Amino acid sequence: MAMTVCIEAFELYRFFHAGDSETLALRGVSLDLAAGEMVALLGESGSGKSTLFNCLAGLDEPDGGHVDLLGERLTRRPEAQRAQRRASGIGILMQAHNLIPSLHLADNMALAMQIAGKPDRARAAHLFEQLGLTGHTSARPAQLSGGEVARAGLAVALAAAPQVLLADEPTGEVDAATEALVLAVFDEQRAAGTAILIATHSEALAAHADRVVRMRDGRIVDV
After folding, report:
1. Does 5-222 carry CATH code 3.60.15.10?
2. Span 193-202, mean pLDDT?
3. Closest Cα partner for 51 from 70, 33, 73, 29?
4. What separation in angstroms does the CA of 196 have from each of 8, 126, 209?
5. Do 141 and 152 meet the contact criterion of CB atoms below 8 Å apart?
6. Residue ranges of the domains in the chain?
7. Torsions phi, psi for 170 (to 5 deg)
8. pTM for the structure as a whole
9. Which pLDDT tens digit goes with each residue over 16-69?
10. What is the DSSP letter of 31?
11. Which of 13, 30, 106, 141 sits CB 3.0–4.6 Å from 137 for a disulfide?
């Protein structure tokens, strides 16, 4: 039985210009993620991973190619449409984190759910418990350790039960025990049918994935 494709990139190109210099960040990248699949994206700094994430999330527009989310075009749509589809269908955890510094963790979670139109107190409590944050819901991000902020960012990324999760280095600031806890969360999300793409340098995360995709110089070089 064919697996349902949740998000698909078709021949993505992205160029950046600085004066007379041109950087080719993406050079014809094609990638798809199926429901319940976890894919690890590996590559050195500058390989194009972050640019690919931004294009997949609709945060940036490719210069060529396009992205389809749940069978509908995401690329080259009005920003309001992209934002709405992103809020309801894509969970995003970037290295810069996705928490509003002035809000408590509980309020960050509530805001993400409100934007997506999916308020769910039980889900919020479950995610905080899963990620060991139940005692920190009234804390602001600046009051947490780096590892706690990373886990809180993951909880907020999963707030609206997205069909697609894009996570950039989700375990970059956590110890081995916490990494195992995060892996358990990913397993639960996979079982629920979430498609997960993780940019990581963690061998444990890569070994846990269904597929490993490698990038170099803006291209996928090994699948």
Report:
1. no
2. 91
3. 29
4. 12, 19, 9
5. yes
6. 5-222
7. -70, -20
8. 0.91
9. 988 788 889 999 999 999 999 999 999 888 899 999 999 999 999 999 999 999
10. E
11. 106
